[in-house]
Structures are given as structure tokens and as C-alpha cells.
Specification:
single chain, 354 residues, alpha/beta, five-stranded mixed sheet, binds 5'-O-[(R)-(carboxyoxy)(hydroxy)phosphoryl]adenosine, binds zinc ion
Length: 354
């Protein structure tokens, strides 16, 4: 791990890009001093995140979440060395709440503000020293979340080369849709994983889009539609649990096979440029899935790669990754951002390298 130059104090990170209101304070060496995370419940009746409700909930809860985090760390705002917030990509209302709160706080205590890219933060978290994963640059990134599916080479906090991405839906979106047609709650990924544990893959047949094709792109819309068609062919009324479990198990197996296949192509590309051995970092909410982690471990081992995935609770959205990304940015020599730093609903990883 590269040496981290002395920062003037702990870094507060704020995450509000979707439906988690979160704050974390990390010491300059990455030690987590305190963290708070509120998963908004306001969206449950709608089976998806309602942007306006999310923004309002962030506004209502963020000040308390930050105050509790400072209290838990035993710090006053003036003790902070920097304040960071996710400024994209994500839902604009929530981004504005988090970014403006962070800017106000930074300005009030005269400390630098850092605008953090949410995707870069998911990726960099694997390098948090206390996780002990030993991830060095360059590494290969598989980022699979509610809004994304992509493979990229990461050479520095802001140096990414995109190898492939989804041509339609995100991986998590596909999990959530499959969970919905199986009558599970939102977010669907964890519920589908739990149900799949009692099912048997192969009892129903689902497609594995892009499997065996060259390149590193993904496509999930065919898989999503196929699950919906299967569920619609069931007799009227709630789907029988055993049947739903078999569908969930087959869905998860198909998803794992596709992700491992696309990652294997990306590993070959990585080896051409950097040689072996390599590190495959799995990040984003879908990387919390145990079956997917097992499939990725197998694919990585075959190519003399090591799979590095944060613990499941840090794969999904959190503020530790925001504070850590800010520490990585500062230690790589990034200048702090101005008060005019924009919040961006779209902010592709590869645009950071420019
Ligand atoms: O990274 P994340 O928390 O938020 C975004 O940046 O989008 O990812 C959320 C997504 C949701 O679609 C959720 O269903 C999925 O990650 N997810 C999972 C699991 N836990 C969360 N998918 C599969 N298996 C899981 N255990
Ligand atoms: Zn995320």
C-alpha cells in the first residue's frame, strides 16, 4: 500500500446518492472511527426507490446522522481534516442534499471539500487497509450494483479504462425485477439470495445472455424477461414457494455464470497489458451475493487472479467508501473541490481520467 501523506485530521464522508442516508468518519490511515447508515423504509410500498421521497428523507435525516457520527467518534466539526460527499452518479435530489450539506459544513469549519464519484468509491473501498485485502494498483474491477454493471482497469483513484458495460439493464436491477415477479420485497437481491438457498438450479431453464461471446459487455434484459415469462406461466395466485425457490436458484446461477464469463474475458485483457498474477475486485451491492462470489473466485483462480471483495455489508452503499475515496484522492495529490462542484446524475468512471 502506498504511503498516505499526513492529512490534517479525520475525514467525514457522506453518502446520499440513492436510498441510504449514511455518514462515516475515517482517520487518515483509514481506521473507521464511526459510521451511521439509515436504509430508508419510505420506498417499501412502491417496490422501488421514489426519487422525491428519497430526497426528502435525506433532508430529514442527514443532519442527525452526521451529528450521531461525530458524537460516536468523539469529535467536533472543527476537528475534521476534510469533508467529502458523493456528488454522482445517482438521484439528483439526494445528491444535492448530501453535497450541499457537506459543502456548508466544510465552509463553516474552513476545511477542504471533496466531491466523490460513487462508482470510484465502490471500487477503491477494496483498498481500505483494515479489510486486509492487500489490493494494489492496477487491478481489475467488476462493479455490479443497482444502477451499473461494468468491467474496468483501475490504475489510480481517478484512472479507469472501461473494458465493458451493460448494453441494457444493470445487474442489481435485474435481481430486483426477478425478486418482484417472485413476490419478494425490495431491494430484491438479498431476498432472492435467501430464497435460492432452498431451490435447485436446473429445474427450470433460464438463458445466460452473452455467455461465451468475446468482449466484456453484459446484457440482462433477456434474463429479466425470461424470469417474468416463467412466473407468468404459473397457475393464478401466489407462486408456490418451492417453485419460486427453483426459479430463484436458476436465476442466481445464470447471473453468476454470466458475470464469471465476462470477468474471465476481462482478466485475459488485463493479463495482456499487465501480466500475471492479477487482482479482480468485485464491488457494488450484487457483489454481496455468496453464489456470485464463489463463481468469481473460481474464474479468478483459473487465471491466476485473486478475488478481492469487501465484506457484504460494505458492498452495498455506505459512507465508509466515500470517506476512504476522499483519503485516496488526497493522497494521490488531488486538489480539493470548489464550492461550485456540480452534482451529476450521470458521471461515468472513465470521465474521471480526463
Ligand atoms: O451498490 P448498491 O447498494 O446501490 C447502488 O449503487 O445501486 O446496490 C444495490 C443493488 C440492489 O439492486 C440490490 O438488490 C443488490 O444490489 N443486492 C444484491 C444483494 N444485496 C444487494 N443482489 C444480489 N444478492 C445480494 N445479496
Ligand atoms: Zn452503490
Amino acid at each position: 500500500m502506498d504511503a498516505i501523506p499526513a492529512l490534517p485530521g479525520p475525514v467525514l464522508g457522506i453518502e446520499t446518492s440513492c436510498d441510504e442516508t449514511a455518514a462515516a468518519i475515517l482517520a487518515p490511515d483509514g481506521t473507521v472511527l464511526a459510521e451511521r447508515l439509515l436504509s430508508q423504509q419510505d420506498h417499501l410500498p412502491y417496490q422501488g426507490v421514489v426519487p422525491e421521497l428519497a430526497a426528502r428523507a435525506h433532508l430529514a435525516h442527514l443532519p442527525r446522522i452526521v451529528a450521531e457520527t461525530l458524537d460516536a467518534a468523539g469529535l467536533r466539526p472543527a476537528d475534521l481534516g476534510a469533508v467529502a460527499a458523493t456528488t454522482g452518479p445517482g438521484l439528483i435530489g439526494g445528491l444535492l442534499v448530501g453535497a450541499n450539506y457537506a459543502k456548508g459544513l466544510a465552509l463553516a469549519v474552513g476545511k477542504p471539500f471533496l466531491a466523490v464519484n460513487h462508482l470510484a468509491a465502490h471500487a477503491l473501498l477494496a483498498r481500505l487497509p483494515s479489510l486486509g485485502l492487500g489490493v494494489e494498483f492496477p487491478f481489475l474491477l467488476l462493479l455490479v450494483s443497482g444502477g451499473h454493471a461494468l468491467l474496468a482497469i483501475v490504475e489510480a483513484p481517478h484512472r479507469h479504462t472501461l473494458l465493458g458495460q451493460t448494453i441494457d439493464d444493470a445487474a442489481g436491477e435485474c435481481f430486483d425485477k426477478a425478486a418482484r415477479v417472485l413476490g419478494l420485497g425490495f431491494p430484491g437481491g438479498p431476498a432472492l439470495e435467501a430464497l435460492a438457498a432452498s431451490g435447485t438450479p436446473g429445474r427450470v431453464a433460464l438463458p445466460r445472455p452473452m455467455l461465451g461471446r468475446p468482449g466484456c459487455d453484459f446484457s440482462f434484459s433477456g434474463l429479466k424477461t425470461a424470469v417474468a415469462v416463467l412466473a407468468s406461466r404459473e397457475p393464478q395466485g401466489p407462486i408456490a414457494t418451492a417453485r419460486a425457490a427453483d426459479i430463484a436458484a436458476e436465476f442466481q446461477t445464470a447471473m453468476a455464470a454470466v458475470l464469471a464469463d465476462r470477468a474471465a474475458n476481462a482478466m485475459r485483457g488485463f493479463v495482456e497489458k499487465f501480466g500475471r498474477p492479477g487482482t479482480l475486485v468485485a464491488a457494488g451491492g450484487v457483489a454481496a451475493n455468496a453464489a456470485i462470489r464463489t463463481a468469481l473466485t473460481g474464474a479468478a483462480t483459473e487465471q491466476d487472479f485473486v478475488l478481492a471483495a469487501p465484506p457484504p455489508k460494505l458492498c452495498t452503499d455506505n459512507a465508509v467508501m466515500v470517506a476512504w475515496a476522499a483519503i485516496e484522492m488526497l493522497s494521490a495529490g488531488h486538489a480539493p473541490d470548489g464550492m461550485d462542484a456540480p452534482s451529476r446524475p450521470r458521471w461515468p468512471l472513465q470521465s474521471l481520467s480526463a
